[in-house]
Amino acid sequence: MGRQTIATDQAPRAIGTYSQAVRSGDTVYLSGQIPLVPETMDLVTGDIDVQIRQVFENLQAVAWAAGGSLADVVKLNVYLTDLGNFGAVNETMAEYFAEPYPARAAVGVAALPKGAQVEMDAILSFAD
After folding, report:
1. Can you tell me whether residue 21 is helix, strand or coil?
2. Residue 64 in contact with residue 124, Cβ under 8 Å?
3. Contacts of 47 (CB under 8 A, 6+ apart)
4. Cα–Cα distance between 33 and 64 in angstroms, integer?
5. Which pairs from 87-92 meet CB under 8 Å and 24+ separation?
6. CA 37 to CA 50: how far, in whole Å?
7. Domain formed by 3-8+21-125, architecture
8. Which pLDDT band holds residue 1 (cuts at 50, 70, 90)?
């Protein structure tokens, strides 16, 4: 099976030279999502909790377009401009994921596109 690009209008369209997701075999690689509202392509208004929730909603939309869900995530990468918001990610993540949780990394970064405070990308696996 070759590579297949995944796209949905339920998540923000790509703002650069990348696909929302790419499937290769039983694995789907979701590109980084920032807290953009898909309909307007503007950053969601609100505090970090609102931004984190929007990112999970965007990832979920792309996972659904790939024929899966966040339950299929085996690896999640979180990028934060303030690592002090790590606890907020954990709290909101518990609403979107159940055990066994995916492997995860949290990385502090100086800046993110469009002034976002959080970005996440993920890997889904459909292998048994």
Report:
1. strand
2. no
3. none
4. 15
5. 88/48, 88/49, 88/52, 89/52, 89/118, 91/49, 92/49, 92/52, 92/53, 92/56
6. 11
7. 2-Layer Sandwich (3.30)
8. low
What is the DSSP code string of 59-126?
Answer: HHHHHHHTT--GGGEEEEEEEES-GGGHHHHHHHHHHH--SSPPEEEEEE-S--GGG-SEEEEEEEE-
pTM of the model: 0.96
- Dihedral in degrees, nearest 10, Cα atoms 124, 112, 116, 20: -30
Token pair, residue 27, equals 């694995």
Average of pLDDT values for 90-94? 97
